[in-house]
């Protein structure tokens, strides 16, 4: 099965769309519009960032077609994870992320793909809670893009002073899109650099998470040094640090801290 939610060709920024309710999981969240057991504030305020981006002639740039087919990614953008691969690249407008894993086919509403993103400045050092898992973050980040493997829910969570603020169904709005192809066991994401405040730097952490009661775990992290895969409630100890103005290939990026 192939699912696509591509960016809308509109001039306005992302808006809040009607919530999709997953009746297959018991919601214990503080927000009635959410189908997850994760805990975030009830506010769903959009955050606006500058749309001015810094680019360097000759810097790394690769536009990815968002269709769930990973064949257009290069080896310089491929990161091995436990049980699959992660893929990261960018162009002047977007950060592109891909994930390939069997659980994208066999998983359900308790499985999540999580993408923490920062710009190297301020942000949260405590992540979003999923059921009883909440990681400490070794490097501050301002955003979490999350996608439910059942494709029931997705959202952007933005750190604001002392809380995570949610924008529901953020993927597929503005310049953000995603596509899943179960035949390829893959999902691809296109994330607006401007809306995430990514000027010349992107700090990124990717992992899968299972929030089912009695079997909770986090796994398949990238960087792989972040935590031991299959761990219950791990802290995230390493993040990729990409220089968006450099010609250095993504695979050669350092990690922080």
Percentage of residues assigned to helices: under 10%
What letter string, H or E per element, gives the SSE order? EEEEEHEEEEEEEEEEEEE
> Distance between the terminal alpha carbons, to the nearest Å?
39 Å
CATH class: Mainly Beta
Say what the CATH topology is: Immunoglobulin-like
What general form does the structure show? globular
- pLDDT averaged residue by residue: 84
Regions with little confidence, pLDDT below 50 for 5+ residues: 8-36, 41-56
Percent strand equals: 35-45%
Going by helix content, strand content and strand pairing, the class is: mainly beta
Radius of gyration: 17 Å
Q: How many β-strands, per DSSP?
A: 18
How many independent structural domains? 1
Q: Which CATH architecture?
A: Sandwich
Number of helices: 1
Question: How would a textbook summarize the main sheet?
Answer: 8 strands, antiparallel
Provide an overview of this structure.
The protein is mainly beta and 257 residues long. The chain has one helix and 18 strands. The protein has one domain: Immunoglobulin-like (Sandwich). It is 2% helix and 38% strand. The strands form four sheets. Strands 6, 10, 11, 12, 15, 16, 17 and 18 form an eight-stranded antiparallel sheet that branches. A six-stranded antiparallel sheet has the order 1-13-14-5-4-3. The chain has a two-stranded antiparallel ribbon with strand order 2-8. The longest helix is centred in the middle third of the chain and has 4 residues. About 18% of the residues have low confidence.
């Amino acid at each position: 099965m192939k699912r696509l939610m591509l960016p809308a060709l509109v001039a306005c920024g992302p808006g809040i769309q009607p919530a999709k309710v997953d009746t297959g999981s018991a919601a214990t969240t503080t927000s009635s519009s959410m189908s997850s057991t994760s805990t975030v504030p009830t506010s769903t305020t959009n955050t606006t960032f500058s749309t001015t981006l810094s680019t360097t002639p000759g810097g790394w740039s690769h536009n990815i077609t968002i269709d769930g087919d990973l064949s257009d990614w290069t080896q310089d953008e491929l990161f091995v994870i436990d049980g699959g691969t992660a893929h990261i690249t960018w162009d002047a407008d977007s950060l592109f992320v891909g994930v390939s894993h069997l659980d994208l086919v066999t998983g359900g509403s308790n499985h999540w793909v999580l993408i923490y993103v920062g710009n190297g400045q301020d942000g949260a050092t405590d992540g979003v809670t999923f059921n009883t898992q909440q990681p400490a973050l070794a490097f501050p980040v301002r955003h979490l893009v999350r996608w439910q493997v059942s494709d029931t829910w997705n959202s952007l969570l933005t750190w604001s002073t002392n809380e995570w603020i949610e924008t529901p169904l953020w993927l597929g709005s503005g310049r953000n899109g995603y596509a899943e192809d179960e035949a390829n066991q893959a999902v691809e994401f296109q994330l607006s650099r401007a809306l995430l405040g990514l000027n010349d730097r992107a700090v990124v952490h990717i992992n899968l998470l299972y929030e089912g009661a009695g079997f909770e775990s986090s796994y398949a992290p990238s960087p792989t040094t972040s935590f031991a895969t299959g761990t219950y409630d791990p802290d995230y100890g390493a993040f990729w640090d990409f220089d968006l103005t450099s010609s250095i290939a993504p695979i050669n990026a350092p990690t922080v801290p």
